[in-house]
Q: What sequence folds into this?
């Protein structure tokens, strides 16, 4: 008898039970979930930004008919870049109910592999084994933080195609008339594969920090694309002016760089170095109250990658503590 | 599964807005934790599901009172779960413990022999858990059922992390001796 036997007795709830309870809760009132570490405003803003970043990603589809299986191009996150965008554009996108799903042929992606719900584990060793990853932990815990929980999310995969006509209509709606969606864009398969990820939570009396790590998502794209051209469309959708979008699109490597549009009024960003790698630190523009009016420190998000592993550290730490915590990973 | 959650949302999950999708994610994340806490606490069977339901219904009704600045959501939820368990114990001080059933699909591709061994281990462990004092069994349930760290358990129970570690170590040693 050892700890493994104790861990092994866990079991997932019956799906019928989980579903019935979920539905019963729903019938009792609208969901107002507890938000996580960052302020609601930043959360909304960055979530919108992420959606746009994904829209940029969605646009990287072939303009020419090629054998997708024979000539695959690949996107992996190695770098992060941020662009400031006008919050009015994000509002406009929200008003248009734009999300990546609305631009997909068929309206939704095809799920090839379902990651299932996050699974709580009892130790870093267990998380490493479950994720197939040497999970790293902070060697320094600032601000009285202590380790709280560890969860692992399984691998997943989806396949989708962009609806070229809807994208063109969106450009028209946004009055982007100098760019044309490449002919033959629609219907080409794009496959996104995500590896297992591990999330560690750290808490103190008034703080909550989370560290997520996992191998980079991979996006299989049919080859032959001018990614800079497609990226330019995405940047214009995000609200950049024509000249800026063109310059930016031509200056980065779209095969390895994840672009995060950051709303001017909600957040600022700066480049930092973590373990010699260039990272991106996004900071909410000002302290903000939560939904109950209590004030919290500004939220911060630090993104960086090392080798094929992507790290994200988020919470309401001071910037220096955030970077030191990231630097202390071992 | 939305594209966003497939690609980036999982890396920066805390950025999702406090809307229904967020609650759904929390529900999916926390349900196994709470459910297994009760399985280890009271055994398998309908009671574990009943107590899990009671916990989530209480949390749902009290969701406006959750203060995220005072701690993690999981800690708040497990506080409710402990209270639900204690209420249940007060109502029925003597109870029969339903056996834990062998976990299905824990290991990839278990053979029938593996499953038989697992089932046998589960039954033995369930019997031994049923013989533990309440405090020791609760700590095991929090540690191995809910997957909490010793520090998180300490915050919930008022014990020190050292005490939690010591009690767990001693309890596992006793279980091993009785195995």
A:
């Amino acid at each position: 008898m050892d700890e493994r036997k104790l861990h092994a007795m866990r079991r997932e709830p019956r799906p019928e039970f989980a579903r019935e309870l979920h539905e019963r809760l729903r019938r009792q009132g609208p969901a107002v979930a507890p938000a996580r570490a960052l302020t609601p405003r930043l959360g909304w803003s960055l979530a919108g930004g992420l959606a746009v970043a994904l829209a940029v990603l969605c646009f990287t589809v072939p303009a020419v008919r090629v054998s997708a299986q024979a000539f695959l191009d690949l996107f992996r996150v190695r770098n992060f870049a941020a662009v400031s965008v006008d919050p009015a554009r994000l509002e406009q996108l929200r008003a248009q109910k734009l999300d990546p799903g609305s631009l997909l042929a068929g309206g939704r992606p095809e799920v090839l592999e379902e990651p299932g719900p996050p699974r709580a584990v009892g130790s870093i060793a267990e998380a490493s084994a479950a994720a197939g990853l040497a999970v790293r932990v902070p060697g320094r815990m600032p601000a009285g933080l202590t380790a709280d929980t560890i969860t692992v999310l399984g691998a997943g995969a989806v396949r989708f195609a962009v609806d070229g006509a809807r994208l063109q209509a969106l450009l028209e709606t946004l009055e982007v008339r100098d760019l044309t969606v490449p002919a033959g864009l629609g219907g080409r398969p794009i496959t996104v594969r995500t590896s297992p990820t591990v999330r560690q939570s750290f808490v103190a009396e008034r703080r909550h920090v989370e560290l997520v790590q996992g191998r980079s998502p991979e996006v299989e794209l049919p080859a032959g694309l001018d990614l800079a051209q497609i990226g330019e469309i995405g940047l214009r959708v995000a609200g950049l002016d024509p000249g800026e979008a063109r310059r930016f699109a031509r200056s980065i490597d779209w095969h390895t760089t994840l672009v995060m549009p950051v709303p001017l009024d909600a957040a600022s960003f700066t480049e930092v170095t973590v373990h010699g790698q260039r990272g991106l630190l996004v900071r909410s523009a000002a302290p903000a109250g939560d939904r109950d009016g209590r004030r919290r420190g500004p939220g911060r998000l630090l993104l960086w990658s090392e080798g094929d592993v992507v790290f994200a550290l988020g919470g309401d730490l001071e910037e220096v503590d955030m970077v030191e915590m990231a630097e202390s990973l071992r | 599964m939305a594209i966003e959650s497939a690609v980036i949302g999982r890396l920066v999950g805390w950025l999702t807005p406090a809307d229904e999708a967020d609650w759904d994610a929390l529900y999916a994340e926390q349900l196994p934790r709470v459910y297994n806490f009760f399985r280890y606490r009271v055994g398998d069977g309908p009671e574990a599901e009943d107590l899990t339901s009671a916990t989530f219904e209480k949390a749902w009704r009290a969701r406006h009172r959750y203060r995220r600045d005072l701690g993690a959501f999981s800690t708040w939820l497990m506080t409710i779960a402990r209270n639900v368990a204690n209420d249940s114990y007060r109502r029925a001080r003597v109870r029969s413990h339903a056996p834990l059933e062998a976990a299905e699909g824990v290991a990839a591709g278990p053979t029938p022999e593996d499953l038989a061994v697992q089932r046998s281990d589960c039954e033995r462990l369930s019997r031994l858990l049923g013989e533990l004092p309440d405090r020791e069994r609760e700590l095991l349930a929090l540690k191995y059922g809910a997957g909490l760290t010793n520090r998180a358990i300490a915050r919930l129970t008022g014990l020190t992390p050292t005490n939690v570690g010591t009690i767990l170590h001693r309890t596992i040693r006793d279980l091993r001796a009785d195995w």
In short: The radius of gyration of chain A is 21 Å. Chain A is about 30% helix and 30% strand.
